[in-house]
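Give me structure tokens for this 326-residue protein.
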Amino acid sequence: MLLDVRDLHVEFHTRDGVAKAVNGVNYQVDAGETLAVLGESGSGKSVTAQAVMGILDMPPGRITGGEVLFQGRDLLKLKEEERRKVRGAEMAMIFQDALSALNPVLSVGDQLGEMFTVHRGMSRKDARARAVELMDRVRIPAAKERVRQYPHQFSGGMRQRIMIAMALALEPKLIIADEPTTALDVTVQAQVMELLAELQREYHMGLILITHDLGVVADVADRIAVMYAGRIVESAPVHDIYKAPAHPYTRGLLDSIPRLDQKGQELYAIKGLPPSLLRIPPGCAFHPRCPLARDVCTTDEPPLYEIEGRPDRGSACHFWRECLHG
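Here you go.
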């Protein structure tokens, strides 16, 4: 097992109270496997990833429980100096807003080369040569000339390729991609996802893909974990999720995807809004928006039930059978 997140809890202390952003998250990723983590904004996807990477702002954030085992080591018990050695070299992150993540006053070559001068002790000349190789690898045209250019001189899709190159620089065993196709047009989204999948196969990396778009992950993910209000509410192999979702929230997300055979029809939308993490509803947090909700849902929080005797499928719904076969 490459990464094993166990019962992770994260909260934020604010003026209005304690926001429980992550509430007992469990997931695993093997080498060469892609796990897609799905959910609306505020579901806890990115906060979980930041806790795994060790880049959570503390304060106001605080990890209050759980373990993050990376190749058997609990990263939460490492000192910050040891944690820094893991970041970049063994696990890396691709951020959703490449323009904000890149330094506007340094050339992309200097930013890529810094990975090698700091972590590998290379000379600046050798680091620049490696930066050109990486830019070629992620298919940036005329890399030798463009290595001296600045982030604002690249398109959104090309900046995202630079972020992918930075993540790959030290050949980490795990990459976390946080909404890597946000604000890109559909064609560029497909190119970026295809590139990520190709590189993952080549380097045999583990990949965690964070997104709110089920359409993005259909062809690249092996498994999907659906998050809502800081919890994983469904977990299953990707084809099972699309064929027969076992949680009403997952079904709602699937029904919200535009389809070619429904041209001219009104798009489905899950009613209501995600709950405030300061005041998560009792019982099942999804019950105020759920078409299957009954009295038990308002009082008893459902565990992640094993689906039909399959340990690789789980649903946090009291009425998962009705949803699965409905």
